[in-house]
């Protein structure tokens, strides 16, 4: 009987840890998505500025600037 109770305790501990891990995984996944969104927004902003500079200085030829 003692072994059965101990097994239940271990099982509940494993379930609790699995739930904690799932929470961390979801949080990490959301943080990664936020980071990717920020990176894309920054790249878009940089390209907008680059286009503004190119339009302001029409003498600079486009092939001289290396765009990613």
Write structural notes for this entry.
It is a single chain. The chain has 68 residues and is an all-alpha fold. The protein is built from 1 helix and no strands. The longest helix is centred in the middle third of the chain and has 55 residues, at 2-56. The radius of gyration is 27 Å and the shape is rod-shaped. The mean pLDDT is 80.
Q: TL;DR?
A:
This protein is mainly alpha-helical and 68 residues long. The protein has one helix and no strands.
Comma- or semicolon-separated keywords:
mainly alpha, 0% strand
Q: How is this fold's topology laid out?
A:
Layout: H1 2-56
The largest pleated sheet is described as: none
Provide mean pLDDT, rounded.
80
Query: How much of the sequence is in beta strands?
Result: under 5%
Fraction of helical residues: over 70%
Number of helices: 1
């Amino acid at each position: 009987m003692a072994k059965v109770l101990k097994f239940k305790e271990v099982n509940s501990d494993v379930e609790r840890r699995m739930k904690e891990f799932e929470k961390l995984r979801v949080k990490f996944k959301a943080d990664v998505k936020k980071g990717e969104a920020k990176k894309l927004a920054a790249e878009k902003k940089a390209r907008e500025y680059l286009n503004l500079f190119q339009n302001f200085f029409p003498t600079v030829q486009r092939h001289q600037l290396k765009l990613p």
